[in-house]
Known about the structure:
The protein is an alpha/beta fold.
Amino acid sequence: MCEYKNFIEDIIDNDLESGKVSTVCTRFPPEPNGYLHIGHAKSLCINFGLAQKYNGKCNLRFDDTNPSKEDQEYVESIKKDIEWLGFKWDKLLFASDYFDVMFDCAVKLINKGLAYVSDETADEIRERRGTLTEPGVESPYRNRTVEENLQLFYDMRDGKFPDGSKVLRAKIDMASANVNMRDPIIYRVLRATHHNTGDKWCVYPMYDFAHPIEDAYEGITHSVCTLEFEDHRPLYNWVVSNCDFPAPLPQQIEFARLNITNTIMSKRYLKKLVDEGKVTGWDDPRMPTLSGIRRRGYPAEALRDFCERIGVAKSNSEVESSYLEACVRDSLNRTANRVMAVFDPLKVTLVNYDGREELTVENNPNAETVTYRQVPFSKTLYIDRSDFALVPPPKYYRLKPDGYVRLKGAYIIRCDKAVLDDDGNVAELLCSIVPNSKSGQDESGIKVKGVIHWVDADSCVDVTVRKLQSLLTDAVDGVTDFNERFNTESMKVVSAKVEPSLLNARAEDRFQFMRVGYYVLDRDSDGSNLVFNEIVGLKDGYKPSK
């Protein structure tokens, strides 16, 4: 059976076979105006993955052409996220590295009669652009002479005009069926301190002009981007062709962006949540940013696996969030150690046991190398209240009056008596250990179907646990606005009792709380207060379509 290839790889194979390109060079070009989110993970995996597959190169290039919205904080966070995801860039570059090149390209277009300075306001340009069915109206400044346009453009650069008073427009076709080709703005006057170039410039290129120049200048062979840029491709090709870059010119290829149910894929709205204090920051464990996902405990390998499974398509679609959770669960099932945690403790006193011992318990039966830990055991324990029923339903295999159950890694116990409080609620269980029933050494002859987790009352540790849900509620009755769907119950803070081995855990260590779910130790923890974030539950809600 031949290896599956996506349509981008088919294009690259043809380009290599025809001799159009000899070495594949891609790039990942984020704008440093926010943190990367899970949607960027797909683009990362595609661009860096193609470079790896074809033994090529992938540059990390920051498209920092809008200094009013960009910040060095975002630059550093993006670099950290990419490294965490497991990728290494060939060159670290900035669009601002090419501001001189871009300015020279704009001058070249003016000299060719392909660009002109316009005094129109943004509203006037918008009004004259036309519609999808009606052509636009030419600017009254469209026929300025080359000499006049050059002087005005240099004056723009030299700060002789206020912000927004003049723009440089490409001179293409105001009757084009593609609105993006109707004399688009390629430069504007903007006074803002740039994180990389300071106050050197007061004119900045527009993205649609800067991006193709960056690709061509770097020798990018395949410029892979999401579908919303498909209508911009003719302008991309126009820029690289008319700026006289040598062959081979970069080729823009579009793929379907990643959309996940009940997941915010808008950097603008994520920033709004941060600015309004609805979350604790860009790395809040509920946030779908890569830093938030890392803090929540999602393994990097699970994200890479997810992106590989969903594949590369030409049309947009939506992926169930449970599919991502299934990938996370598959990874953690192999790598996360099992520990015991009790969320709703019910005291158990072993009436026929007065000793204290260290039991040897398996960490993870699915690990490549199985290891063990020591767990304290004494006369008084806690089990989860849900593991006892005073009046059990049929086929109830946990603890009940006069019933038997095995304590994980320990002994079989029998419930002798349930002690009730004044309100009739179960306050304590008096139980007996079955002799010779120790795990791994059981000679009791008693067979039980139920196995429950527990913690030792004398040595257990009280911890804080954040139970997490999506920031968005389900879209129902046509309500799709993020503001109306914000989930005010997305984080619930509860307490739990855990075994003392977790005192040795470090931030970002992941565990399976037996029979409950997967959890990660948060960096907010200190020696006296451990804080865990819920990663994902044990139950797999994803069901592949038939």
